[in-house]
Design the sequence.
């Protein structure tokens, strides 16, 4: 019986590459000359921290980061932006929280969306992923597209372990 595993995570290697490209672009831009603007990833807290002198520069760094993440195939659905706040004498900061895995609310949402889609097959949650099975591969792929593009879904979803 065809099946696949549905996981919610961000590829940290690609994220590191996107952050390096962001740093290079910041250093090369004229409007950031002499600026202390930067974007750094704090792996323990799963947070990207953006720092700059003013809000305009933070928004520009965020835009550069989004562009680089898009080029690397990293979606922005799994990120929650904080408000821009003061972080020192004259600096401001913004944090982007990365959400990975399925918490209780995400599990409820997934179950509701799978039922709502009219999917004929079975799904079960096991160890940070959903195993989804059906008689037809086409049904599996259409369910994946439905879940990935649904407006209520606020997680970055990936298909793994496709079995025919």
Sequence:
């Amino acid at each position: 019986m065809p099946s696949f595993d549905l996981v919610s995570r961000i590829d940290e290697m690609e994220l590191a590459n996107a952050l390096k490209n962001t740093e290079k672009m910041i250093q090369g831009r004229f409007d950031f000359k002499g600026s202390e603007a930067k974007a750094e990833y704090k792996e323990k807290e799963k947070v990207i921290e953006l720092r700059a002198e003013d809000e305009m520069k933070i928004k520009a760094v965020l835009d550069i980061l989004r562009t680089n993440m898009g080029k690397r195939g990293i979606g922005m659905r799994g990120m929650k932006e904080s408000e821009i706040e003061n972080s020192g004498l004259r600096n401001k900061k913004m944090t982007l929280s990365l959400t990975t895995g399925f918490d209780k609310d995400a599990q409820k949402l997934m179950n509701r969306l799978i039922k709502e889609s009219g999917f004929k097959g079975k799904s079960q949650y096991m160890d940070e992923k959903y195993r989804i099975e059906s008689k037809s591969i086409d049904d599996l792929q259409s369910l994946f597209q439905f879940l990935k593009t649904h407006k209520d879904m606020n997680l970055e979803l990936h298909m793994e372990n496709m079995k025919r």
About this structure: Helices lie at 12-28, 55-71, 104-116, 137-149. The chain has a mean pLDDT of 88. Strands lie at 3-8, 38-42, 47-52, 79-81, 85-86, 92-98, 122-126, 129-133, 157-163.
